[in-house]
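Our consortium's second objective concerns turning raw sequence data into structural hypotheses that experimental partners can test. To show how far this objective has progressed, the report includes one record in full. It was chosen at random from the queue rather than selected for favorable results. The single chain below, 243 residues long, was entered without modification.
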Amino acid sequence: MGFHLETLTKLNDTKTTDNKQTILEIIIEMIKDQQPDTIKFNKEDNELLEAGARVSLQTVEAENTKLIKEFDVVTKLSPTINSVDSEDLFSKRFDDFVEKAKLDLEKLEKNFENSNKSYQEVVLLFGEDPKTMGPEDFFSIWKNFVSKIIEISERIDVEREKRDKERKREEQKLKREQELANKNAATAVSESSTGGETPSEGGRGGRAARGGRVPAGPGRGGRSSNQADVQDLFAKVQGTKKI
């Protein structure tokens, strides 16, 4: 059970139902929360992917075949070169060149065979056919996929940092508002217990507190000085009539 490597290129093209995120973004967010080291790539790995995407096995193989044919011509030419005299060193130096070139060519052929074998093994490991998928396609898929992972990962970091700053600003704002509300509440309690005037002390009753005299009326149980004099005189008159 598995999927073709082509699927990797489609993860960033498939969006959620609300079109706000892609499947690749969701996967990367999950990985960053659970196994962040999985999506960390060093510079050397990225450079290898870029170099691999520029390799064409057909071109390398054609170059090797060309070198082998050209070397065969040189090898056949070597015995035909004769020295002019004892001081003529061209023939010896040419033979030395042929010997060194032969070793270099054998080493190059061996490296190509090993590289081609390793490439076929890794492609088969991913379920692909090395005959139809060359290094240009194989490594290009990985290069683009890794580049997109790095890009999305960095964007997620920036967005998360931005959200954290906004959250902290909001928390500080709420904290200041709460402190102000607590301060206002404490001030209101203090004023109500020590600084306010009751109705009996202020308003109309304030004149009495400042030394004024409040007139007493019948409804309040008191009487004026004139009323007291009239009543006394009336009592004396009544007493005289009785005598």
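The partners drew two points from this record. Residues 57-133 form one domain. Confidence is low (pLDDT under 50) at residues 198-223. Both points have been shared with the crystallography group to help prioritize constructs.
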